[in-house]
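Why do we care about 3D structure at all? Because function follows from shape, and shape follows, mostly, from sequence. That is the central idea of this module. The next example makes it concrete: a single protein chain, its amino acid sequence, and then its structure expressed as tokens.
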Amino acid sequence: MNRRNFIKNSTLGTGALLFSGAVLPGMTHIENDRVYRIGIIGFGDRGSGLFNVLRDFPGKFEVTALCDPLDMRLNRAREMADTNKVRLYRDHRELLNNKHIDAVIIATPLNTHYEIARNALEAGKHVLLEKAMAFTTDQAISLARIAKDHPRQTLQIGHQYRYSPLYYKVRNMIQEGYLGKVTQIDARWDRNWNWRRPVPDPKLERKINWRMYREYSGGLPAELLSHQMDFIHWAFDCLPTTIYGTGGIDRFKDGRETYDNVQVNIRYEKEGMIGNFGATCSNQHDGYSFRIKGSRGMVSLLVNDGIFYPEPETRKELEEVDGVSGATKLTWNDDKKGIQLADSKLKDGSYYAFEDFYKAISENTLPDSNVYTGGTTAICVALANTSIYNGDIRQWKPEYNLSPDNADKKTAGSHRNKKTNEG
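And the structure:
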């Protein structure tokens, strides 16, 4: 493809993706004076962390309720919140009965997500539900149906990392053909620690370290790898074909049940892609790494940083300036091979997720991380864990294909501006 045709067939010539802070889907500012009163259900590390993020949203959200069944977490809530303005609860159902609360954040163990989200929607609340959306395939399918029956309520799923403008930019690069024909995804999220929280009373072991036990948790695939799986499903508008996983408790022989070392291989037959998703608790060198490899180039992503590595012929085309393209001069990174994609001023992904949550509530639109994209990822995680523990290959079934069918809501995210994975 010559330079002029490459410019014609992509937005490269304008620099809209590689060189500028172009406004991307989900990043638009919403003019609205409404302040939504919000309750947080689950005040562990994630719930208390989101409480702090919400402090950056003056005039949009007001936290008026916090809920957790554990005394130690209610004590934390008393230290962090003004209890003259924020009411504390032990039972989420009592919080949901509060008619003055508009929305809730659910940051509880995975096995409770379905019940609490269902209760919240039926109580007329908008919901931001932490990932993974549901624990089982049946729960994901059922929650999607329940959400369709409550079209006035927003249900956003907490895959916050891909809410960064960087990830919107990469999604658009994929759809505009910058990477060419993508065939391989290599994703890792590695750490070197035992993943345990301190337990003040042995009776609280399973309540605090619920991630270690299969009754409550999806383990590493749910807690870490689901973020990268979710981005692939969203960016390519794709569904898995087959899922195969393996793993074991290979380092920490401490009574845990979920594995500390896993690898999941996912085949996307329609797109002609293979996704490799792995995590270990025994080495931190790679940390979070995410490489999407195509015939024209590769994107290497961190949470808040990204580099585009063009293939040699693509690099040559990028460096040719024909005088009419209007292309901004390329700025290569230090190794002279890649183009920096990230904006140094990026905020935490949760901030951008709250922006979309506010927009979805205000305009009654589908959030970009929604019950359909989040449901697809939750099903993928459930099938991955079944494969890991049983040692077999899991097949994607037609009943797993979740999609919006409510004409009253605009479709968003992977259901908007569909494009194929072609170079």
